[in-house]
Amino acid sequence: MKESDEMHPVLRIDDSEENALMSLLSFMYSGKLTTSEPNLLLGILMAADKFEVLSCMRHCSQLLTNLPMTTESALLYLGHPCSISLAAEVQHLTDAAKEFLANSYKDLTEYPVGLMNMPLAGIEAIFSSTDLQVVSEDTVYTLLVEWAREQYPDSEERHRVWSSRLLPLVRVSHMSWAKLHEVLASTDDDVDHDQTTKCITDVLLHKAYPAHQQGVLAAEAATCRQVPQRFYMRKPIKVVEFDRPCQQVIVFLDITREECCRLFPTGQILSHLFHLAGQNFYLQLSCEMHEKRKSYNFGFWFGNIEEPEDTTCLTLDFEFAARKRSSVEFVRLLKDKRIYTGDWAEGCSDLFGVEWSKFIADDNLFINGVLHLRADLRVVVGQPELQA
Description:
The protein is α+β, with helices and mostly antiparallel strands and about 400 residues long. The chain has helices at about 20-30, 40-50, 55-65, 70-80, 85-105, 120-125, 135-150, 155-165, 175-185, 195-210, 215-225, 255-260, 355-360, and strands at about 135, 230, 235, 240, 250-255, 270, 275, 280-290, 295-305, 315-325, 330-340, 345-350, 365, 370-380. It folds into three domains: about 1-105, no CATH class; about 115-225, Alpha Horseshoe (Serine Threonine Protein Phosphatase 5, Tetratricopeptide repeat); about 235-380, Apoptosis, Tumor Necrosis Factor Receptor Associated Protein 2, Chain A (Sandwich). The protein is about 40% helix and about 20% strand. The protein is elongated, with a radius of gyration of 28 Å. The N and C termini lie far apart (about 90 Å).
């Protein structure tokens, strides 16, 4: 440093660096630090980096690592700038801070207290997590829009932050069709609409032209489109719709073994909505207790969200199937026909005909840890009336 050539060196520091520098000088003569306050320790670490006192950098890093992590300290570590030389020393701190915040706000199924006051670095740590438990990715989008509106009243700054920092946190490919269309049709000034529209359009293109059919899109999909699902209460689905010769939908739903395990003993998971004959339906996965056998089984159902009095009776022909490793193709497990009035869920309380523990352990069903299900529903036209 240039000070090494001066007879009376003068170190110029900011007022905010004074306490940290005095502690650093004390450490250089005594080898000890007397503080355990995270903010001051981090300041000493920055000062040690500035004046290249490597032993103090390592000591501060170790002391900070041993301190219990809190929301305040986590945000402190994430919000502190550091030089390239310091990055390796604090990387484990920032990683621990991100993990702490992600775990602290892991369950977003209920509106989390304090989320709207969280700084940007904390928001990025929370919504980058795949372990986030949330109703659906639609909820993530809505929460981030609300946060941006609250934190950035100036529209130009809000649009900049949304496009560069917040939109990449949204796993657009797992949003529902209804929400995607709602966002595309929106004229609100809450977000950068052009950038959001471009992102959604790209995702819709990938949905319409799967990667295995479009070689050019495949490389792009592998790098930026294929993001894992979070722990959704409403699972994303893939839907194929037909209008002729009758109204029909084929719905594909994938669920991991881990998600199935969380259904035991009385849990359930609902899917995104899909449309048939002008009505909104959903699929339901559940763990069902068989009263007579006193055993638990895997239940698979479809239901309608309309009120019974508003629902037109439909004669539905439905079929449930699952993909099996032994056959590769989907194997039909249930086929039935019902007059559906919308006042109950229709399906099967024991889709695979085995007790829960055998179902969970069956590697013929869980291909690479994923259960692939298919529901085929069609409106029956010109059929004789059935008993409901």
